[in-house]
C-alpha cells in the first residue's frame, strides 16, 4: 500500500430506462456530448488530472460502447502507470440478480480485489451521470487535512436546478458550523430555496470502504458502491467539499438535451472546458467541417468531419454529420454519422447516430415535447409534409 495514493471506482449502473432509445446499446456514461465528448470523459479527466493511476468501471450491462471509447485509457494517461490502467467489470445487473439466487457468492469481490491490487490507501467513488470538472486533487488534499472518515462532494443549487426526483439523489443538511447533520431525499425538500446537492462523489480510505462493505453484507445490502456509501454515510465523520463550477445532472432525456444546449452559452462552455484541467477524450482525426457558400450557421457547435450546405441554428452537431441544401436544423442535437436530407426540417429533436432524415421529411418537436430518434433510423417524408 502506498501512502495517500488514490484509486477510483466509477459506477456505470444508473437506471437508463428513461433515456430509451438513446441507451438501447449504451449506458448513460457513453452518451455523446457537446460535439466530440462522452459523458464519462469528465470524470475520467478529473481522475487523470489528480494523478490517479487506475480506475475501475462497474458497468450495468454490456460494456461494448465503453470499451470502444476508452480502449487502453491512453487518452487519459492511464496506460503510462506501473500497476495502472482502466479495469472494467460489466454485467453488474445480471450479477446482482444471480447473487440474489446464489447468496454464497461475494457480490463485492471485484471491488475488494481491485482496491487491494491498486496498492492505494484511498479511493474516489462516484456514479457516472454528472457532468462537471472536479478538482479531485484539491478534494483529496482537503480530505486528508480534515481528518474525517469520508468526504462528500456537493454543489449549492437553486432548487429548480436539481431536476427530477430520483431514488438515491440526496441533499445535504448542515448546521450553523457547516457540519453535516442530515441527508434528505430530493422529494422530501419543503421550503428550501437553495439546496446543498450531493454529487454522489466520495473520498475515503480503503479501510473504511471495506468496513462499509462488511456492514452492507451483514445487512443484506447489495447495490453499487456509491449507493452503499451513501446509505451508511451518517455512521461516519464526514467532511464536505464544495464544487463551484458548471454542473449537469443527466437524469432524463430533457436534462441531457438541456446540458447540450447549455454549451451554446459561452459562460457555461468556458466554465466547463476553459479551466486549468482540460477535458480529455479519445482522439479522432478527421478533416475540418466543410461549409458551403450558401450555408447558414449560427449559435451552434459543429464538430469536425461534417458537411453543412443548409441552415443550422442553436444546435449541437457531432462528427460526420451532413446537412444538405435547403435543410433546416434548429434547437437540436444531431449525433455522428447522421444525414439531414435536402429540404428536410429538424427542430427540437435529438437524432442518434447514423440516421437518415430523407429529403423534405419533418422531425419537429417543441420545448416541452422533444422528438428522439434512435440509431440507424430512416425517417421518410410523408405526402402532406412535402
Automatic annotation (TrEMBL):
One of its GO terms (molecular function) is glucose-1-phosphate adenylyltransferase activity. Residues 296-363 form the Glucose-1-phosphate adenylyltransferase/Bifunctional protein GlmU-like C-terminal hexapeptide domain. Its EC number is 2.7.7.27. It holds the Pfam family Hexapep_GlmU. InterPro entries: ADP-Glc_PPase (IPR011831), GlgDAde_trans (IPR011832), GlmU/GlgC-like_hexapep (IPR056818), Nucleotide-diphossugar_trans (IPR029044), Trimer_LpxA-like_sf (IPR011004). CDD domains: LbH_G1P_AT_C. Keywords: Glycogen biosynthesis, Nucleotidyltransferase, Transferase. Transmembrane segments: none annotated. It is an enzyme of class 2 (transferase). GO terms for biological process: glycogen biosynthetic process. Belongs to the bacterial/plant glucose-1-phosphate adenylyltransferase family. NCBIfam families: glgD. This is Glucose-1-phosphate adenylyltransferase subunit GlgD.
Amino acid at each position: 500500500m502506498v501512502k495517500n495514493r488514490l484509486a477510483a471506482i466509477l459506477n456505470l449502473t444508473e437506471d437508463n430506462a428513461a433515456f430509451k432509445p438513446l441507451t438501447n446499446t449504451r449506458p448513460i456514461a457513453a452518451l455523446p456530448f457537446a460535439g466530440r465528448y462522452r459523458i464519462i470523459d469528465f470524470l475520467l479527466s478529473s481522475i487523470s488530472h489528480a494523478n490517479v493511476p487506475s480506475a475501475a468501471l462497474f458497468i450495468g450491462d454490456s460494456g461494448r460502447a465503453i470499451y470502444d471509447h476508452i480502449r487502453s485509457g491512453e487518452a487519459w494517461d492511464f496506460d503510462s502507470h506501473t500497476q495502472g490502467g482502466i479495469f472494467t467489470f460489466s454485467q453488474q445487473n445480471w450479477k446482482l440478480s444471480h447473487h440474489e439466487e446464489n447468496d454464497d457468492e461475494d457480490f463485492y469481490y471485484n471491488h475488494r480485489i481491485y482496491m487491494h491490487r491498486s496498492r492505494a490507501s484511498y479511493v474516489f467513488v462516484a456514479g457516472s451521470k454528472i457532468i462537471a470538472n472536479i478538482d479531485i486533487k484539491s478534494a483529496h488534499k482537503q480530505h486528508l487535512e480534515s481528518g474525517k472518515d469520508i468526504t462528500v462532494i456537493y454543489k449549492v443549487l437553486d432548487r429548480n436546478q436539481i431536476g427530477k426526483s430520483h431514488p438515491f439523489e440526496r441533499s445535504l443538511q448542515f448546521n450553523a458550523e457547516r457540519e453535516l447533520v442530515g441527508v434528505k431525499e430530493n422529494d422530501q425538500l419543503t421550503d428550501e430555496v437553495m439546496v446543498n446537492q450531493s454529487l454522489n462523489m466520495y473520498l475515503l480510505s480503503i479501510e473504511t470502504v471495506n468496513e462499509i462493505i462488511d456492514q452492507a453484507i451483514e445487512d443484506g445490502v447489495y447495490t453499487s458502491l456509491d449507493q452503499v456509501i451513501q446509505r451508511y454515510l451518517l455512521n461516519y465523520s464526514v467532511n464536505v467539499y464544495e464544487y463551484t463550477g458548471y454542473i449537469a445532472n443527466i437524469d432524463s432525456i430533457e436534462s441531457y438535451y438541456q446540458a447540450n444546449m447549455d454549451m451554446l452559452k459561452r459562460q457555461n462552455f468556458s466554465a466547463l472546458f476553459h479551466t486549468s484541467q482540460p477535458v480529455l477524450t479519445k482522439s479522432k482525426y478527421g478533416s475540418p467541417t466543410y461549409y458551403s457558400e450558401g450555408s447558414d450557421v449560427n449559435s451552434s457547435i459543429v464538430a469536425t468531419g461534417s458537411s453543412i450546405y443548409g441552415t443550422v441554428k442553436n444546435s449541437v452537431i457531432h462528427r460526420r454529420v451532413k446537412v444538405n441544401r435547403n435543410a433546416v436544423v434548429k434547437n437540436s442535437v444531431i449525433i455522428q454519422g447522421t444525414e439531414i436530407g435536402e429540404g428536410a426540417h429538424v427542430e427540437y429533436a435529438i437524432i442518434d447516430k447514423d440516421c437518415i432524415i430523407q429529403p423534405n421529411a419533418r422531425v419537429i418537436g417543441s420545448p416541452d415535447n422533444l422528438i428522439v430518434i434512435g440509431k440507424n433510423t430512416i425517417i421518410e417524408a410523408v405526402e402532406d409534409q412535402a
